[in-house]
């Protein structure tokens, strides 16, 4: 998953947690606080790792690999006014030009391969951890939008279920989220960055947003 345009990114998420016997002050909506950020260069893709502490009254955090049906489906297929899928060759004037976010090639729909390029809208609920990047220049922060050209990607992702069943149990712990890419140094070099994070539970309740301190890759590099 290492590409020269650096869009070959992937994620690793590890959660450590404990159950809470007296959760009177625990929120139903997940609550997080920023914990740490570090950068680990390797011979392969480098890792930018952020971690947050969390607490949640129900423990309904995390998504399993098979949880891909609504509301956690990846995309919504766009259709015309008679219910037909909108292909690239039949796209209306308001449709975007081809890019790998708004169009999918040969998707599997209703267990069948559709041999065409189909217009889609990304479903944000396919993810349960959301990451934004900001670059600071002249005292002003500007969001670095990975979904824009030339990258057409995202560092939003999914961390796995923390509890293995659907029992209701108050939990607290730490999520360590590693974002792997071969392009960190080439893109950001000596830029001052900050990262904002948010998580979501299976009831689609979004946590508060937390923000890292201002960092450069060199100041957070770990051997």
Describe the protein in words.
By secondary structure, the protein is an all-beta fold. Helix content is 2%, strand content 37%. It is built from 1 helix and 13 strands. It has one helix at 184-188, and strands spanning 10-19, 31-40, 46-56, 75-77, 103-105, 108-109, 112-113, 117-122, 129-137, 140-144, 171-181, 192-199, 210-211. The strands form 4 sheets. A 4-stranded antiparallel sheet has the order 1-11-3-2, with no helix packed on it. Strands 10-9-12-13 form a 4-stranded antiparallel sheet, with no helix packed on it. A 3-stranded antiparallel sheet has the order 4-8-5, with no helix packed on it.
Q: Whole-Å distance between the termini?
A: 23 Å
H/E series, N to C?
EEEEEEEEEEEHEE
Helical content (DSSP H or I, runs of 4+) = under 10%
Strand content: 35-45%
Strand order of the largest sheet: 1-11-3-2
The gross shape turns out to be globular
* Number of helical regions: 1
Number of strands: 13
What characterizes the major β-sheet?
4 strands, antiparallel
Low-confidence sequence ranges = 1-9
Rg calc: 19 Å
Secondary-structure-derived class: mainly beta
Write down the overall mean pLDDT. 91
């Amino acid at each position: 998953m290492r590409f020269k345009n650096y869009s070959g990114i992937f994620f690793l998420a590890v959660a450590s947690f404990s159950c809470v016997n007296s959760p009177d002050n625990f929120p139903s909506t997940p609550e997080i606080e920023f914990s740490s950020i570090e950068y680990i260069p390797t011979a392969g893709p480098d890792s930018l790792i952020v971690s947050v502490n969390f607490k949640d009254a129900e423990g309904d955090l995390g998504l399993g690999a098979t949880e891909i049906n609504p509301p956690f489906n990846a995309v919504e297929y766009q259709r015309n006014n008679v219910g037909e899928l909108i292909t690239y060759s039949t796209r209306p004037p308001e449709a975007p030009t081809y890019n790998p976010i708004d169009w999918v090639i040969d998707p599997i729909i209703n267990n069948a391969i559709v041999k065409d390029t189909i217009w889609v809208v990304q479903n944000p609920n396919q993810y349960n951890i959301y990451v934004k990047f900001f670059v600071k220049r002249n005292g002003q922060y500007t969001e670095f939008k990975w979904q824009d050209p030339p990258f057409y990607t995202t560092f939003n992702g999914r961390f796995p279920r923390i509890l293995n069943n659907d029992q209701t149990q108050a939990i607290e712990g730490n999520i360590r989220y590693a974002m792997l890419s071969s392009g960190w140094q080439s893109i950001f070099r000596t830029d001052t960055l900050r990262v904002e994070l948010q998580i979501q539970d299976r009831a689609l309740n979004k946590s508060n947003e937390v923000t890292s301190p201002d960092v450069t890759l060199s100041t957070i590099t770990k051997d």
